[in-house]
Amino acid sequence: MSDTIVIIPTFNEIENIEAIIRAVFSQDKLFHVLVVDDNSPDLTAQKVKELQREFPEQLYLLEREEKTGLGTAYIAGFKWCLKRDYSYIFEMDADFSHNPNDLIRLYNACHTENADVAVGSRYITGVNVVNWPMSRILLSYFASKYVRFVTRMKIHDTTAGFVCYKRHVLENIDLKAIKFVGYAFQIEMKFKAYLKEFTIVEVPVIFTDRSKGKSKMSGGIISEAILGVISMKINSFFKK
Predict the structure, then answer these.
(1) pLDDT at residue 223, rounded to an integer
(2) What is the spatial distance between Cα 210 and Cα 148, in angstroms, rounded to a whole number?
(3) What's the 3-state SS for the chain?
(4) How confident is the model at residue 127 (pLDDT cuts 50, 70, 90)?
(5) Is 210 exposed, middle or buried (0-12, 13-18, 19+ CB in 10 A)?
(6) Rounded to the nearest 5 degrees, what angle is found at the Cα of 95, between the Cα atoms of 144 and 176?
(7) In terms of Cα–Cα distance, which of 118, 85, 91 is closest to 36?
(8) pLDDT value of residue 149
């Protein structure tokens, strides 16, 4: 039994899923993996089921009927993990934009250095992004600066999706009250942890854009992340 599980949300990730699972399982530490699949037409879930025969004690699959957003996928994954005995629960993309070799660094930040939340940060030591067009780098970078300014969180990469949570953090956040479903979900989760005064640290990582499959980023997702932050901050004043 492992104390650590990595949640990987998927929608049409057949080109990446086997490789990312094997990369996680190749680490020196024993990690479990929960794939949360949103009924991928490309049969991503079927591939996971095939791999479960090889990794019956490490690999788990949560199938959802439809694609309803990254945030709802992660919340479903969090609830699944909290019903089990995992002490450290990770978020990670399926497309290798997050390097599986960095998992142990995020784990150590929580397990050894006593952080409550460890964020794989693209921006704490400059801009560590590979293969993105300059327009997308600037959008992401200044979106994080904007969120930092509005929320007053001392986090450089507020939109990061490579995160390790200690169990008690997720137990103390009302997951049913999380409003955002796109990438703003990542901001909201960090903000909820910040409001509860959990210790959040950033671990520098290099983010590499996907080489296989199709990006899920859209204009609506970006708008949610930018426009929703102000209302999230205002609402926090009335909930103190």
Answers:
(1) 64
(2) 26
(3) CCCEEEEEEECCCCCCHHHHHHHHHCCCCCCEEEEEECCCCCCHHHHHHHHHCCCCCCEEEEECCCCCCHHHHHHHHHHHHHCCCCCEEEECCCCCCCCHHHHHHHHHHHHCCCCCEEEEECCCCCCCEECCCHHHHHHHHHHHHHHHHHHCCCCCCCCCCCEEEEHHHHHHCCHHHCCCCCCHHHHHHHHHHHHCCCCEEEEECCEECCCCCCCCCCHHHHHHHHHHHHHHHHHHHCCC
(4) confident
(5) middle
(6) 60
(7) 91
(8) 87
CB neighbour burial string for 62-83, b if at least 16 within 10 angstroms, e if fewer: bebeebebbbbbbbbbbebbee
For the domain that residue 209 is a member of, what is the CATH number?
Answer: 3.90.550.10
pLDDT for 51 beyond 90 = yes
Report how far residue 15's alpha carbon sits from residue 9's, in angstroms, rounded to the nearest whole number: 14
pLDDT tops 80 at residue 238:
no
How many structural domains does the chain have?
A: 1
Q: Write the pLDDT tens digit of every residue in 86-95.
A: 999 999 999 9
pLDDT of 105 above 60: yes
How far is residue 143's CA from residue 141's CA, in Å, rounded to a whole number?
Answer: 5
Answer whether 88's CB lies under 8 Å from 4's CB.
Answer: yes
Q: Which domain holds residue 46?
A: 4-237
pTM for this structure?
0.91
pLDDT of residue 217: 52
